[in-house]
Amino acid sequence: MLIVDAGQLLGILQVCLLKYLPMEINVDLELDASGLSCPLPLLKAKLALNSLQAEQVLKVIATDPGSERDFEVFVQQSRHTILAFEKDNAIYHYWIQKGS
Predict the structure, then answer these.
(1) pLDDT tens digit sequence for 30-63
(2) Between vectors from CA 53 to CA 49 and to CA 55, what angle results, nearest 5°?
(3) CB 87: neighbour CB atoms within 10 A?
(4) Alpha-carbon gap, residue 60 to 32, rounded angstroms
(5) I want to staple 59 with a disulfide (CB 3.0 to 4.6 A). Which of 27, 34, 88, 92 is the partner?
(6) Is 16 a catalytic residue?
(7) Which of 29, 38, 52, 82 is catalytic?
């Protein structure tokens, strides 16, 4: 019998949800910023968000490790929201919902 405490169970559930949640998000526009260095992934994402309506979702794919920090600061200073984030090896995926 496997015994798991509540904290471990919560952690396992969060990992599972984060792994599968992005697949269920309806994406309105996808931006592939792979190979671009800071600040280009963020600048291109800002331009892409400008073309969307409020509540629409932009998916960004980036390979720049600095993008993780850049996008987090960006949404804190804007009305946009990161719905999901996924790091797969050296590829970063962001699902950003445009704010109103």
Answers:
(1) 999 999 998 999 999 999 999 999 999 999 999 9
(2) 90
(3) 10
(4) 6
(5) 27
(6) no
(7) 38
What does DSSP say about strands 29-33 and 91-97: parallel, antiparallel, or unpaired? unpaired
The structure tokens listed for 10 are 């919560």
70 residue type, one letter: D
- Taking alpha carbons only, the member of 73, 79, 72 closest to residue 50 is 79
Place of tokens 């992934």: 41
Segment 7-19, tens digit of pLDDT = 555 555 555 555 5
Determine whether domain 26-97 maps to CATH 3.30.110.40.
Answer: yes
Reported in sequence order, the residue ranges of 1-100 that DSSP labels E, i.e. its strands, are 29-33, 57-62, 81-88, 91-97
For the chain, domain boundaries: 26-97
Q: Which bin fits 35, alpha (ψ -120 to 50), beta or left (φ > 0)?
A: left
